[in-house]
Structure formats: structure tokens, C-alpha cells
Amino acid sequence: MTAFCRVGAITIAGWLLTGAVPAGSVAAGSRMIEADAAFLREVYALKAEQSVRLDRFVAIGEKCRSISDEDAATIRARSREMLEAHAADLPEKERDWARGYLQGLRVGALRVVDFVDSIQADACARFAKPGGALMRIMTWTNKPQRMPDGSVAPARMTP
Prior knowledge:
The chain is mainly alpha-helical. 70% of the residues lie in helices and 0% in strands. It has a domain at 3-12 and 26-118. Helix 1 crosses helix 2.
């Protein structure tokens, strides 16, 4: 079941439980679908921002030589898979918006990534500190990562 169906089912279930179902009007169903589409658009926007943020941190990790090419490719692939799954949940008419939104985020991030060339050794040390951004992006490789307290970090943490 896609997120679109789940959200619609949750909305309908909420109406049934609260007794707030509008009297069978087609317009009510249309409003529900529009609300679901708006919700899915917001979720996609957040996931797109997360994906672009991961790409930026991977670029920093590569510049600092803190991350292997294989791990960088794995993180980018998993991030892309996650984003494609959320894009597939969007209604067809929202997918053009999604492509444009993601392209805009990436253009902005690439301009910011130019700063990667000016990263100093102390910035690399902060990036690689225990529990920091490096550990968080490495959770996307499915390799066990340790938190500063020694516990195992959850999968796919957000940096």
C-alpha cells in the first residue's frame, strides 16, 4: 500500500471514528484527496531536503577523505531510492513540481558545496568526531556505527 493510500485510509478512518464524515458529498472526497496530496507534497519536500543534505555531507566526507568511494556511492544510492519511493507516492500532477523542487535544491546545494574546497583540517576533525555528521551519514551504509556512549546507532540517521 502506498503512502497515498495509507493517508487516505487514515483520513477516512478518522472521519468514521469521530462521526465527522460529511454527508456523502463528492466535494468532501475531493477535499480529502487534495489534503492528502498536500500532505504528500510536504513529506516529499522534507525528504528531498534530507537527500540533498546527505549529498552535501558525502561531498564533505570525500573532501576530508573520511569516507570511501564505495560508502559514498551506497549512501547516495539509498538516499535516491528513498526519494524515488516518496516521489512515486505523489499524485501524477505533483511529480513535475517534485522534479523542479529537487532540481532547485540541488542547484543551491551545489553552489554551497563550492565551500568544500576551502575546508580546513579542523573542520574535517569536527565532521569526523564521534557521534557527528560522519557517523550519522555512515548509518545509511547499513554498517553498524557506534554512538559516543557505545550504543549502536539507529539506521539512516539524519545529519
